[in-house]
Design a protein that fits this description.
This protein is 36% helix and 15% strand. By secondary structure, it is of the alpha/beta class. The strands form five sheets. It has a seven-stranded mixed sheet, covered by helices on one side. A four-stranded mixed sheet has the order 2-1-3-4. It has a two-stranded antiparallel sheet with strand order 9-13. β7 (284-288), α10 and β8 (311-315) form a beta-alpha-beta unit. It starts with 22 loop residues before the first helix and ends with a helix.
């Protein structure tokens, strides 16, 4: 009787049966899976709390011990499997995946270190200005931005993105983020009272801002790295708008914007002085919207201040408001009586609200856009008749027109009846804002000589309306006058680092359509889609019936 033989396919070998697993090996496999799960739980726990407290650390340690137990018990099996062909395939796949993941991580790391993005908004609302870039590059000391902004803050994401932009600008700038509603220790340490507060620290100096706009942060960086604040005084006692409160005669937005740019803003009453005198620490004197004439002693004090290189920003109104001609005429600027009416360029067709779309090229008007000047007077500017003090000296500087009306405008002197240009009324273009710069350049120098000190002369910027900076106008979305004033004051004190950092908030964009354009838009937007839908419905109905 022949023995039965197990037949196998030709050319193949019988598959050997592996040895039975012992109880220890089965237990170790279970322990290995439990250990791997424990490690994952511990790592996820630590990632959520952003630290390694005792509980997740215990999970990781116990999980690691269980995985090591599995490895020790099954070391022979692991070594044998590692020598097989399938293990090599797995190793190659793992190496390939590791290389791909490494490339992705490297690209992300490079992208994080070299932040590139494109701001497609017309006003570059979400980009830091070139001047902020220059301020960051010029830093010689460490600056720390400590932000206390919770996710409940109305623009917390915008603040975080902006702070990240600052951190990318310079290795000297570092950023720390805390939630004032959960990080109680840090909130108490820095005495934080308001959500949205950002502390700007450098050495022993600290500036505190709320909101984290670019003008606030850049100005605070300048304040903690450069020195004392620049003082701006506003004249009071003649019916000028108030710097505080709310109402129809308030310019609080201008005051807050100046303070955000690290100016020290104060009021000045020359009438309250026995001998009126502009303070020595006055960097800029502001005279905005006086309703009553200045006293002779006040005029003398202002003229004396300008004679010794003072800086003046004046925003005066049409008659019957005082014209300040006792101050301005000596510098070649003569206020004209009347109101500028402009049928060609005016806001919403209101003749007494001219718009300047193309201001004269100057540091003040660069990147300014359109400027709106409600109810404004005009100025006649001319060059003072003066001779150079020495041969080769440049001639005295002429007053410069900054903002002018269109050629179709005229100066309306009568407020009665239908506005129309009379033969005796000056026509456009009319100067609505001008500047005077009497700073003199140094004389020609002989090679090897040290240059003499710069002769600091008077600087003046004058506009024909104070309404342009009123809070009422700002609430209506018209804030170009505030920007013009901020840039004017920066130019007056030669603060070139702030001259191109106006606030980023801009007027809402509006499209003005004529009656014909409105009819075309109505047909395009409403009539054509409705007709298309009706035609489709008719076709569907006819096919359904057929």
């Amino acid at each position: 009787m022949s023995e039965d033989k197990v037949s196998t396919p030709q050319g193949s070998e019988p598959i050997p049966e592996g040895p039975a697993r012992t109880g220890l090996q089965v237990t170790s496999i279970f322990a290995g899976w439990v250990g791997l799960a424990a490690i994952i739980v511990g790592l996820l726990w630590a990632a959520v709390v952003k630290s390694f407290p005792s509980v997740p650390l215990l999970f990781i340690m116990v999980g690691g011990a269980l995985v090591i137990l599995w490895l020790v018990v099954n070391i022979a099996t692991v070594v044998a499997a590692a020598k097989g062909r399938q293990a090599k395939l797995i190793f190659n796949s793992a190496a390939f995946i590791t290389i791909i993941v490494g490339i992705v991580v490297l690209v992300n790391y490079i992208g994080a270190r070299h932040h590139l993005r494109t701001d497609l908004t017309e006003s570059k609302r979400y980009s830091l200005s070139e001047q902020t870039h220059e301020v960051a590059k010029a830093l010689e000391q460490e600056v720390k931005l400590i932000a206390f902004v919770s996710t409940d803050y109305y623009n917390w994401r915008e603040v975080q993105d902006r702070l990240r932009e600052y951190e990318m600008l310079s290795p000297k700038i570092s950023v720390e983020h805390y939630d004032p509603k959960t990080d109680f220790a840090k909130t108490k340490e820095y005495d934080i009272q308001l959500d949205g507060t950002v502390l700007v620290k450098s050495g022993e100096k600290t500036e505190r801002v709320t909101g984290g706009s670019e003008e606030q942060l850049t100005s605070a960086i300048l304040a903690v790295t450069s020195g004392e604040k620049t003082k701006v005084y506003f004249l009071t006692g003649h019916g000028e708008p108030s710097l505080e409160g709310s109402g129809p005669n308030v310019i609080g937005t201008l005051k807050r914007s100046l303070e955000n740019q690290q100016y020290a803003v104060e009021t000045l009453s020359l009438m309250a002085m026995e001998e009126p005198e502009v303070p020595l620490d006055c960097a800029v004197l502001g005279i905005i919207g006086p309703k009553q004439p200045l006293h002779e002693k006040e005029i003398d004090a202002v003229n004396q201040y300008l004679t010794f290189g003072g800086k003046l920003f004046a925003a005066i109104d049409p008659p019957p408001a005082p014209s300040l001609q006792e101050i301005l005429t000596d510098y070649g600027v003569t206020p004209m009586d009347g109101i500028v009416l402009d049928p060609q360029l005016s806001l919403w067709g209101q003749l007494n609200v001219p718009i300047v779309n193309a201001p004269a090229a100057h540091q003040i008007t660069s990147n300014l856009g359109a400027v709106i000047l409600p109810v404004t007077r005009a100025f006649d500017i001319e060059s003072p008749e003066e001779e150079p003090e020495y041969p080769g000296m440049p001639p005295p500087s002429r007053p410069t027109a900054l903002l002018q009306s269109s050629p179709a405008s005229w100066l309306e002197k009568s407020v009665e009846g239908q506005p129309q240009k009379d033969p005796d009324e000056p026509g456009g273009p009319l100067v609505m804002a001008a500047l005077v710069d009497q700073t003199t350049p140094p004389p020609p120098m002989v090679p090897g000589m040290e240059p003499p000190p710069r002769q600091d002369g008077a600087r003046i910027v004058v506009a024909g309306t104070s309404i342009m900076v009123s809070d009422d106008l700002v609430r209506q979305g018209v804030d170009s006058g505030v920007y013009f004033t901020l840039k004017s004051i920066a130019w007056l004190v030669e603060n070139e680092k702030l001259i191109s950092i106006p606030p980023k908030d801009t007027m809402p964009s509006r499209v003005m359509l004529s009656d014909r354009q409105r009819n075309v838009a109505t047909i395009t937007v409403f009539a054509l889609p409705v007709l298309t839908m009706l035609a489709g419905a008719v076709v569907w109905w006819r096919r359904r019936r057929g």
